[in-house]
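step 3/5: co-fold with glutamine
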Amino acid sequence: MHQFTLAEIARGLADKQFSAEELTRSLLARIAQLDPQLNSFITVTEDLALSQAKAADARRAAGENGALLGAPIGHKDLFCTQDVLTSCGSKILTGFKAPYNATVVEKLAAAGAVTLGKLNMDEFAMGSANESSHYGAVKNPWDLTRVPGGSSGGSAAAVAARLLPAATGTDTGGSIRQPAALTNLTGIKPTYGRVSRWGMIAYASSLDQGGPLARTAEDCALMLQTMAGFDTKDSTSVDQPVDDYLAALSQPLNGLRIGLPKEYFGAGLDARIGEKMMAVVEELKKLGATVKEISLPNMQHAIPAYYVIAPAEASSNLSRFDGVRFGYRCENPVNLEDLYKRSRGEGFGAEVKRRIMVGTYALSAGYYDAYYLKAQKIRRLIKNDFVAAFNDVDVILGPTTPNLAWKLGEKNNDPVAAYLEDIYTITANLAGIPGLSMPAGFVDGLPVGVQLLAPYFQEGRLLNVAHQYQQVTDWHTQAPAGF
Ligand code: GLN
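step 4/5: write C-alpha cells
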C-alpha cells in the first residue's frame, strides 16, 4: 500500500479496497521498520493517527467521499499541533506541546487527513541540508550518506521513502522546493499569503509560506486545495478565492510561453543539471510550449539581500524564546538575566545563534540604513524583474538547485557554501511569487529537480505544467532502492 499516491489512495478508499485504519497501520509499521535509517520523524503520533483513521472510516461509511478523507500525511514540526510536541527542530522547544492547531493542520484534519507524525527539520527552518536539527540529521533515501536538503528535509525523506504519500513543509528561501529536488519529489511554494501562517512557528515572517511535498503534481493539487485560503487569523493572508487546482491540471500546454533567464546558466550550475533542465524544455516544447530567453538582472543580489532580511526578521521572531514562556529553561538560574542568557545560550544551536547575531547587527542603530534598508530596496528590484519578465512569458523555468545532494557534513564548516545553494529558490520568496519543483531525471543515481515560477496566485498554472510533464515522463514514479 505504501506505493500509492494520494489520488490512488482516494480511489482505493472509495472502492473499499482497504480502510483508512488498515492503511494507517501498515504505514505505521513501515515507519517503525525503516525510519531508523532516515531519522525523518521527530514524533510518531500513533494514537492520534489511529483515532483519526477510524473517524475517517466512519465518515466514509456514512457516505462522505472527500479526496483526503483517510489520507495519511505528516507535518513539518513547526506547524502547531494541539497536545503534540512541536519542536521546530530545536532544543529550546523541549517539551513544548502546542495548545492549539495551526490553520493548515486544522484544515487538513477537517478534510479527514490522518496525521502520522511530526517531521524533522533544520532548527527553526534555517538550513538547506537538515543537519542543524537538535534531533539529528536526516538522511537522503537515495543515498544514506547524503543530505535530503532542507529545511523540510524530514518531510522530503519520509515522502520519498514511501513512509507517507504527502507531507506539509514550509519555504522561506527554498525549503519546500530544494528538498523536493534532492529527493525526487514535487513540491510547491504558494504565493505569499495564499496559505495561512497562523500556528506556523515564524522564521522570517515576510518570506515564510507553507505548502505540500508529494510525489506528483496531482497530489500537490489535492493537498493545496485544502491548505490554501483566506484566514482572518493571519493578517497577511489574502482574501481571494482559491482556484480549482484539480481542474487546472488537465489544461493543454499549447501556446504556453516559457522564459529561460540567461542568468541561470552561470550561477555555479552543475552542467549535468543544466542538461536535464534543457531536456525538460524539449519535452514541454513537444507539448506545445514556446521558449524565450529572458533576463532577471538583479538575481545576483538575491542571496546577500535574503541573508540580511531573513536573519533580521528571525532575530525579532526568536526573541520570544526566553526560557520563561515556552520549552527549555536552564538549571538553577541565579537571576532573570542569567535565566534568559543561559536558556537561550543552551537552547539554540550554532546556526540559529549565527542568524540572531547577524540579524540583530543588521537592525541596530547606524547599520539599519546600510544593510536592512538596502536589502529591502534590492528586494523591490527583484520583484520588479519578475513583474517585467511575466509581461512576456507565462512561466519561468530553471534548475531548482545548482548542485546534486551533497555528502552529510560536507558544508558544515562553510555556512556561505550552504547559503549559495539557495540561489535559484530565494528570489521567489523575496518577490512573493509561487514556485514549484518537479523531478527531471537523475545524475549518478541522484535526483535532479527543475523549478517553475509563475505570476502571483498562478499556482494552478504551475501544477498544470508539472502534471502535463508527468503524463509523458516517469521520473516522478522512481523510488529509491531499499524503500
Ligand atoms: N536555506 C534557506 C535558509 O537557510 C532557506 C530556508 C527555508 O526556506 N526555510 O534560510
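step 5/5: annotate
The chain has a mean pLDDT of 97.
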